[in-house]
Design a protein that fits this description.
- The complex is a heterodimer.
- Chain A is α/β, with parallel strands linked by helices.
- Chain A is built from four helices and eight strands; from the N terminus they run αβαβαββαββββ.
- The two termini of chain A are 21 Å apart.
- In chain B, the strands form two sheets. In chain B, strands 7-6-5-8-9 form a five-stranded parallel β-sheet, covered by helices on one side. In chain B, strands 2-1-3-4 form a four-stranded parallel β-sheet, with helices on both faces.
- In chain B, helix 7 links the parallel strand 5 and strand 6.
- The longest helix of chain B has 20 residues, at 291-310.
- Chain B starts with a helix and ends in a 19-residue tail after the last helix.
- Classes of the chains: A alpha/beta, B alpha/beta.
- At the A-B interface, loops of A face helix 2 of B.
Chain lengths: 188, 329
């Protein structure tokens, strides 16, 4: 989500031009499958697990992860979505508008939350998400799963499950979509 | 000119009226309201979006629910609130509105929510100050956030106002709610019938995109929604109606009348209701009544409006890719 918002914001506005296909749909599927096994291994099953996708880029990945978890364990974890626009720290600095409605009805007290996003970059979206989750209860733990970790962190935040580590330049843009993952730049 | 005018009446810096907003402006606010309504359903219904901002409510005319609704909306966004009410202020010592506005502005307010018995007050205040201004009711002119919450309530139940047939019943000529609602409902594709005694219709009804009826009963079975206006009791002394009983006999939504409405029809009222005058207690409690939904939705809509004016970044001249650049004066 951070990635997509950033793309729409000057000076990054423009048209996305892809330089390289980093992952195909199949690659993403395999990465999700591996991450699902890691989630199960680390949590000894799916008891009390809630998968929360960040609006909007993290939601399809969260849904895939939840389906894969269900395939493996035969038990469908609770799934929710979270829009963190109103918790961001750059409100007033650039246009920030909620893009989608949060759908998180599970009581989070005592549960394990697996937060899912497409791209981990500065970490500011995740900071906002941690802040927002506190309004829904007190989870036993919060873990972070991302499809792409592209580095350049500005806050002390690290992922627990990573689809792919991708070294990038700061001005590059990572685009995660249904047909795969592209690395490119914005051109005016 | 049109860009400038739009900027002053539309969603640029102020919300002064529904007049000047087009369908996409209204739909943008209503779409955004979904996100704020969800916050109201959280265990802790508060987000830090407007932390450090101050919302000042300047009510030169009495109101409890509109003021409380704006203050609740501001608090859910973590904004601070400063309240000014005419009754307890130095207005009674002769201070002018302009002085009051300047004093409140110097307390660091970011937005002024203004209600006044005189039409056009919010527009005047907007000329005096650099702050954002929200019209919370100016005389018989407009009450835009009421119209927005009414549209949101109808849309929540029906998905869309397109093709809905809505009757607005009561003292249309003195009602800012009716004026804003007519504009908003018709802009969103609904058909509006004004139902009132001839003395309570505005003199210049031509040009309004509405039809007019003087009887409620023949319409009842054909309406998607009935919007009952509050009858100000002082209108009787003005001779607009002979008596409350006579008004109620023709226009009060009684249990009998509600029974003749379609089962999926909706009943709305801006509150506070005069039970037995424009609506009976049975009708207000009927499953078709969405009066309490209106109150809940009022907070969500006002959160969306305050956030659009203060938090969305538009004010700073920031633009999204592909947007035409609009520069604040």
């Amino acid at each position: 989500m951070a990635e997509r918002e950033r793309r729409q914001t000057p000076p990054f506005g423009g048209v996305f031009v892809s330089h390289a296909r980093i992952m195909t749909t199949d690659d993403m599927g395999r990465a999700v499958r591996r991450m699902a096994h890691e989630v199960i291994e680390r949590n000894h099953g799916l008891d009390d697990l809630v998968v929360v996708g960040l609006q909007t880029g993290g939601v399809p990945i969260a849904e895939r992860l939840a389906e894969t978890l269900a395939d493996i364990e035969g038990l469908h974890p609770l799934v929710g979505t979270l829009d963190v626009a109103l918790h961001r720290d750059d409100i007033g600095l650039r246009p920030v508008v909620p893009e989608a409605v949060t759908d998180l009805t599970a009581d989070l007290d005592g549960r394990v939350v697996v937060l899912v996003d497409d791209v981990l970059f500065t970490g500011r979206t995740i900071r906002a998400a941690l802040d927002a989750l506190c309004d829904f209860g007190r989870p036993r733990s919060i873990q972070l799963a991302v499809m792409i970790d592209r580095g350049h962190r500005e806050l002390p935040i690290r992922p627990d499950y990573v689809g792919k580590n991708l070294p990038t330049r700061r001005d590059e843009v990572v685009d995660v979509h249904s047909a795969g993952v592209d690395l490119g730049v914005m051109q005016k | 000119m049109s860009a400038d005018a739009r900027h002053d009446t539309g969603l640029g810096r102020h919300l002064l009226g529904i007049d000047g907003l087009d369908r996409s402006d209204l739909e943008e606010i209503l779409d955004l309201t979904d996100a704020f309504a969800e916050i109201g359903r959280r265990p802790i219904p508060r987000v830090p979006a407007l932390r450090g901002r101050t919302v000042a409510t300047l009510f030169f005319e009495n109101s409890t629910r509109t003021r409380m609704s704006f203050e609740t909306a501001a608090r859910r966004l973590s904004a601070d609130t400063v309240a000014f009410s005419a009754g307890t202020s130095s207005l009674s010592k002769g201070e002018s509105i302009r002085d009051t506005v300047e004093v409140v502005a110097s307390y660091g307010a970011d937005v002024l929510v203004v209600r006044h018995a005189m039409a056009g007050t919010a527009h005047r205040v907007a000329e005096w100050t650099d702050l954002s201004v929200v019209n919370a009711g100016d005389g018989c002119h407009e009450h835009p956030t009421q119209a927005l919450l009414d549209c949101y309530t109808l849309r929540e139940r029906r998905g869309s106002l397109d093709g809905m047939r809505i009757a607005i019943v009561g003292d249309v000529s003195h009602s800012r709610v009716a004026r804003s609602d007519v504009l908003a409902f018709t802009t969103l594709g609904a058909e509006v019938v004004l139902v009132a005694p001839a003395t309570m219709l505005p003199p210049a009804i031509e040009g309004w995109p509405v039809t007019v009826a003087h009887e409620l009963d023949p319409l009842l079975g054909d309406l998607d929604a009935t919007y009952l206006l509050r009858l100000q009791r002082e209108r009787i002394t003005e001779g607009l109606i002979p008596s409350l009983r006579e008004y109620a006999a023709d226009f009060c939504l009684t249990a009998g009348r509600v029974a003749r409405m379609r089962s999926d029809a909706l009943v709305l009222h801006p509150g506070p209701t005069n039970r037995g005058v424009e609506i009976s207690a049975e009708a207000a409690a009927d499953h078709r009544s969405v009066i309490l939904d209106q109150v809940v939705n009022g907070v969500s809509v006002r959160m969306a409006v305050l956030f659009l004016l203060l938090g969305s970044g538009r004010q700073l001249g920031a633009v999204e890719a592909g947007d035409a650049v609009e520069v604040d004066r």
